[in-house]
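Q: Two folds, back to back.
A: First:
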Amino acid sequence: MKCRARKPGGKDRTGHSLTPAVLSRTPVRALLPLLLCLLGFATPVPAQVQLPDHYPAEGLENRARIALSQNVADYLMLGTLNAELQYSVHRSWTLQAGTRYNNWTWLHRQEGQFESRRQTYYAGARWWPWYTYSGWWAGARVQYEEYNRGGIVSPETEEGDAFGLGLGAGYAVHINHWLNADFGLYGWGGMTRYVSYACPYCGKRTGAGTKPFLLPDEVRIALQFIF
């Protein structure tokens, strides 16, 4: 609660000017409005609650510059190691570069052998409608991948070198000032030079050449460390 008070610089009924009280020099005069309020000579009014203003648009692009991501979903995909680095160049744009690596063969030389070996390198950009590292995003990247996969859905195995363009979208959830949870999906398409085999370990060729492809590429359930 606070009391209604005359604005400093006016005049009272006798014509004398009113000057503002300085708390450090005239403590009694500074406390006079409160005493009048408590004694009933002034009318109390509800105090106004001032809500903090929203973050100003200016400077949002400077709140964070670098983010390093680790995609938990890639680790669940047969232990694929991964890392992604982003750098903010504008309040709504980040540049990114990343890699994924998997060199594991499961049930090696046994019936039922399977693998999704790869080394992947990509570079691109993300657009953030609000500001970087917060909320919705859409991204595009160029990507190269050397791969050898087979035995997961069927015994047929394919290895090769693929190059193409990836597109994706997602949402980043702010956990605290240095950590985000980053969710998203990527797909990609392009050309691959490949060799196919009847099974992961028999070495019997069933085809070779160059062909176009369009495939799902990445499910993102990532931790994003912001610096």
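A: Second:
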Amino acid sequence: MAETPEIKPEEQTPKPLNMADNKVYLPRQWPQRLLGSLFVLALIVAAASVTVTIKESLVTKQFESWQQDFYELTDKLGFTVDEIVVQGRRRTDKQELMNAIAVSREDNIFEVDVYALQQRLEQLPWVRKAAVKKTFLPNVINITLQEKKVQSLWQISEKFHPIDEDGKVIEADYVPDKPLLLIVGAGAPENINSLLKIIQQDKGIYQRVKVANFISKRRWNLVLDDVRDGITIKLPEDDVEKAWKKLIKLNTTKGILKRKLTILDLRFKGKIGIKLRKTPGNPDMMLNNGRERNT
């Protein structure tokens, strides 16, 4: 039998290398890993939230239990409301006040929320500010009210509404107990304070003002002395303070408001329109031949 010739390693012919066969392709696993990480993170956050919620719920329940035990103990020790003292009430309705207080004798005084009570009181129509304090042995709730002051009376749609110092409507029934400035027209309450700041510069003239009529939400007409037969002062839309100072000067130097006038028009620059009261032998006339206008 013929022997197969042995082939030595160095005699083997090497195969040429194919560079394409040397490339290594790794599996694309990073999207799956990212999603998996996010999922695990979400589970951790959810578990932590549930744990915190349970702990807070347990703590809240335990606190409420301790609080109830405290109230029961202090009830037995006599810390119940003996008296409610209210100062400063003049116009506030008594029943509305009691409804807002919502506290009665024998209630636990520690259970009374002073801040919440103050907030309820300041929602009442006549209450501007309220102060609430608790004293113990005797157990008294002291309430001090600062009521709103009526600055003027607003006539709109044949109804009358009291207006406070801030120019806001007081939503309550009101019967005046003294003469008040009557303001008329839409938008009058919101604009009255800026007018008062100007016309109060001369107390003498201001005290004679009976009516302030807001015309077309733009400017004011003032009526002095008498609602029906007084002097009507027509103020301009702009430069009201300048016009008012002109009137003060004329009244101081010429006594213009002592004359028998029905209209004094300050809307014109450099001149003043006047209309004299009609008397026998005294026909109507206008200073500078100015013409009276409705606005």
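Q: And?
A: The chain has six helices and eleven strands.
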